[in-house]
């Protein structure tokens, strides 16, 4: 808190946004890594510990997001459009919410995540989260536009791959799972995981529109 | 209609909004009470009568909402931001829509509502609706801010409790209901009921942002 | 492309929007017709060809929509509010997305579409799409307001009929289909088809608000 105040004193006001977004980007990336751990952990109780970690990270991210909105509420010049800041913070927050939701549902439904669909999906989510972190980090100086556009292209391509993995997983699920209740549970988890990659794409689209205006 | 015109003549224009919002708040509260009656009524046909009553109330509320939008379309000074009025009316309307949807689905799916999950959920919905009515009623003079903030706190707490009841109900449903078709039906009703408490929270958030600006 | 450039040279800038919206309206109408063909085609492989055609039309529409957004990004006077253009293009694009989604799911889930629910729904979708095309086409000169309002009324009435067909189909599905997995699949397709008629209504509402402002 004290450090925080000192930082605020020395940092030009608009630098706070970059710092907060970088914190969020880092959290997104760690949560993606933790979700991958969850779907590779075969023990229910060990998974519970990982899921608790994801829950804590989600709360940390809520705090960052809340601070971004608080800073936005004060009246001073922002580094880019207020509504872009608002929308970027919201879509990054959505990524965290859906990562947590998919992790939570796995133990909640007592679903065995040792399944190629869940594991491929988690792999794609992690890659997309890492690209989101890179793109967010480049917003500060926008010197390396190439790095941002590379991240955009990858995030879009990952979202398409996730759609295909989703379709294949659902098709396999209906064909091989005899218990309709299991179908309902797993289908919901696939759907939530697929939304994570959509939300990464949303974040990428806001970053793209910021670049077009300011770079 | 005649009375309505006389009222309009005597009331300062912006008082119309308070009146309409109070009507909506009252309807929300009555609909919450009726939904509780529905889940405690064991007879299908008697439930049908209660559900019809909820449907009628939902139409009444549509009329109020429509009038709020019509008044908003005319160009004069509004008591608070036009978009806040728009968003508040929309979220209150959503509460009514989802209360009606959950009541309707019970008989539509021929689901037996004599279930602790449905009954606890309806209890929470009624409490939240009552708090929404209180908060809306205080908007007129904003003298008793304490009353509004107390309502906000309760609505948020109820939404959290509803999440827990939802999780417990879904867990129990998957564990105890052997018929997957019943799982699908009941899960949908729980989901709709849970959304009612989310919509109450949305309404509370708009009211909070109005208070911050104007109180 | 060359022709396109010549057109752009001769057409007053704002005429481009009318042309693009007419192209979209036509695509919407053809996609509605193709969806009706899909649910009447009993052979899986022949259906696959029709679905591929719908997919291609959806891509064509994406291009039109993208061009509308690009034209909107340039700074010149638009024939009506920029946000109305944006919202109209988005809702027309949604119609196409959901038509394609419902067609695609039929073969994806290997569902037999020879079912009165699917066929009535497709019939309603086609009627609504045709009315959307008529309303969009009248935007250019707004001389025949009667034609537009007739289309609006029909689109709203179709949406209500689709709600009823949806309810009846779901009721019948739960009562007659013993396999819960089939229930999940067909229910999802009914839901997507019902959304198409909602999106037609959304488009109609934007057109109505444009008329109110400009006619």
Automatic annotation (TrEMBL), chains A, B, C:
InterPro entries: PhoU-like_sf, Put_Phosphate_transp_reg, UPF0111_domain. Pfam families: PhoU_div. Belongs to the UPF0111 family. This is DUF47 domain-containing protein. It comes from Ginsengibacter hankyongi.
């Amino acid at each position: 808190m004290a450090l925080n105040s000192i930082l605020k004193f020395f940092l030009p006001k608009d630098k706070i946004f970059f710092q907060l977004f970088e914190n969020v980007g880092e959290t997104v990336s760690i949560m993606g890594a933790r979700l991958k751990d969850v779907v590779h952990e075969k023990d229910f109780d060990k998974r519970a510990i990982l899921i608790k970690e994801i829950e804590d990270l989600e709360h940390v991210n809520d705090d960052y997001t809340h601070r971004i909105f608080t800073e936005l509420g004060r009246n001073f010049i922002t580094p880019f459009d207020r509504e872009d800041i608002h929308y970027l913070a919201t879509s990054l927050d959505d990524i965290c919410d859906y990562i947590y939701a998919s992790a939570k549902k796995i133990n909640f439904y007592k679903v065995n995540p040792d399944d190629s669909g869940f594991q491929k999906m988690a792999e794609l989510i992690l890659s997309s989260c890492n690209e989101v972190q890179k793109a967010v980090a480049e917003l500060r100086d926008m010197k390396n536009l190439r790095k941002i556009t590379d991240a955009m292209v990858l995030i879009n391509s990952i979202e398409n791959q996730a759609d295909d993995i989703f379709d294949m997983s659902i098709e396999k699920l209906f064909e091989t799972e005899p218990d309709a209740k299991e179908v309902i549970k797993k289908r919901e988890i696939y759907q939530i995981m697929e939304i994570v990659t959509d939300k990464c794409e949303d974040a990428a689209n806001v970053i793209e529109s910021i670049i077009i205006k300011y770079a």
